[in-house]
Amino acid sequence: MDTSKTFKKSLGLFDSTSLVMGSVIGSGIFIVSSDMARTLGSPGWLMVAWVITALMTVIAALSYGELAAMMPQAGGQYVYLREAYNPLAGFLYGWTLFTVIQTGTIAAVAMAFAKFLGVLFPWFSESNIWLEVGFIKFNTVHFAAIGSIGLLTWINTRGIKAGKSVQNTFTFSKVGILLAFLVAGLFFANNRDAMEVNSKIFWQAARMENGQLVSLTGFALIAAIATSMVGSLFSSDAWNNITFAAGEVVNPKRNIPLSLLIGTATVMILYFLSNLVYIQVMPLRGTPDGLTVFERGMQFASNDRLGTASMFGLFGEYAEIIMAMFIVISTFGCNNGLILSGARVYYAMAIHGLFFKQAAVLNSRSVPAFGLITQSVWASLLCLSGTYGNLLDYVVFAVLIFYVMTILGIFILRVKRPDAERPYKAFGYPVIPAIYVIAATFIMVILLIYKPMYTWPGLIIVLLGIPVYFLRKKSLGGIKTMEQD
Questions:
Q1: How far is residue 35's CA from residue 445's CA, in Å, rounded to a whole number?
Q2: Is 287 helix (H, G, I), strand (E, B) or coil?
Q3: pTM of the entire predicted model
Q4: What is the pLDDT of residue 472?
C-alpha cells in the first residue's frame, strides 16, 4: 500500500473560514426556530436560546483552537480524542461520524437540496416515483439528492483546489444572499401588528398542553430552553470540520484558530439577526389551522419554513421561489464542505488501522478518494432509507458528548503533555472552557430526562462501536499509536 503521497497545503485563512461558515450554514436556520417557538412560546426566550447557542459555539471554537494549533493533522477531533484519552475514544468518534453524524448530515442536506429544487423544477417530486422495491421508493427527489452527492464527491476527488473553489464560491454566494434577506427583513418587511403582538408576550414563555396554554416559569422554563436548543445547536454544528482538513491548511497553527473564531462568530451573528427578522415580521404564536401566514405565526409556519413565511409580506407569492433558490445554493455549498472534510477523518483512522486500509491512500491529486467514495455510498444509502432525519435527531446528544470530551481533553493534555508546543491557548482557560463543559453537560442531563427518544438511541449508536473496535483490534493484532505513524 503506497502511503508516500502527502496532502497539499492549499487552504489559506479565507479558505478555512469559508469552510467553517459554509459547512454550518445550510437550511436549518430557516426551519428550526419554528419548533423552538412551539417549545418556548416567547420571542424573548427564543432569542435567549439562540444567544446561549451562539456563546457555546464560539467558546467551543475558541477552545478547539488550542488543540488544532497543537496537533495540526488530518483527522482533527478524532486525533484530539485519541491523544487525550486512548485509541478507543478516537475510534468511537470516527465510528459515529461515519455511520451517522457526517453521512447522516450529508444525506439530510442533500434531501433538503433536492426538495427545494423541486420548488423551482416540479419534476423533482416525491410523487414522481421511478422504482419501488419493498419499502424503498426511488423518486426524482432521491435522484437529485444522490446525484448532488455524487457530483460533489467527484469534484473533491479532483483535488483540494477544486473542492475549495466550489466552497468559496457557494459560501460567498449564500452569505451575500443571507445578508440581502436580513436587510430586506429588517428594513423593508416590518409588520407593526406582529411586533405589537410579540411585544405583549415577549417574556411570557408558554406551551400548549392538552389544548391549554400553560405558562413556563422556574425550572420548567430552564428545561424548555435546554430542550429547544436541540434545533439551534444542530443548525450551528459542523464548524469543527476545518480541523478534519488541518493537513491541508497553510500555517495551520495560526489559520485554524483564527478561522474557527471568525467563522463561528460571523455565522452566529447572522443567525441571531435572522431570528430578529422572524419576530419582526410575524407573530410567534399561532394556530395550526390558520389560513394566513399571520394566523399560523412562527409556531405553525407551513412545513416549518420560517424563511419563506417571513418574506411573504415583502415578495408575496414569489417568496417561496426566492427562498427555494437560496436554500438550493446554501445546501449545495454546505454539502461540499461536509463531503470534503469528512473523508480526512477516515484517512486518519485508516492510518491507524481503524478504517478500510484503502482510505489511507491519497490519489494522484493528493486527496483521499477512497474515503470520499465510501462516504458518498453510505450517505446515498441513508437518503434511500429515509431514516436520516431520525438518525440526526438521535446524534445531537452524541455530538454533545464528544464536544464535552474534546474540551475536557484540553485539561487532560495540559497534564499529560505540559511541555507540548501550544502556539495558541484556549481563551479564558480554565474558566471559559469549564463553563462550556458545565452548560453542555446540563443540557445533556435535561435531554436525558425530557427527551429520551433523542438521547438513548444516539448513545446506543456510539456504544455499538465498542465491539467493532475490539474486533478490529483483534484482527490487526493491535492498534497503531501516534508514535508509530
A1: 20
A2: coil
A3: 0.91
A4: 83
Position with higher pLDDT, 484 vs 49 = 49
Can you tell me the distance from the alpha carbon of 58 to that of 267, in angstroms, rounded to the nearest whole number? Answer: 10
Q: How far is 134 from 98, CA to CA, in rounded Å?
A: 26
> Do 93 and 466 contact (CB within 8 A), yes or no?
no
389-414: per-residue pLDDT in tens? 666 677 788 899 999 999 999 999 99
Give the number of residues written for the chain.
485
Contact by Cβ (8 Å): 408, 80:
no
What percent of the chain has pLDDT above 90?
Answer: 63
Nearest CA to 462 out of 480, 446, 485, 444 is that of 444
SS (H, E, C) 178-233: HHHHHHHHHHCCCCHHHHHHHHHCCCCCEEEECCEEEECCHHHHHHHHHHHHHHHH
Alpha carbon of 247 to those of 19, 78, 168, 262, 437: distances in Å? 14, 13, 19, 20, 28
For residue range 36-67, list pLDDT tens digits in order. 999 999 999 999 999 999 999 999 999 999 99
CA distances from residue 458 to 310, 349, 354 in whole angstroms, order as listed:
33, 21, 21
Cα gap 298→34, rounded to integer Å = 5
Q: With 0-12 CB in 10 A as exposed, 13-18 as middle and 19+ as buried, what is 303?
A: exposed
- The residues that bridge with 11 in the sheet, in sequence order, are 249
Domains of the chain, CATH where assigned: 13-484 (1.20.1740.10)
What is the tens place of the pLDDT at every residue in 196-208? 999 999 999 998 8
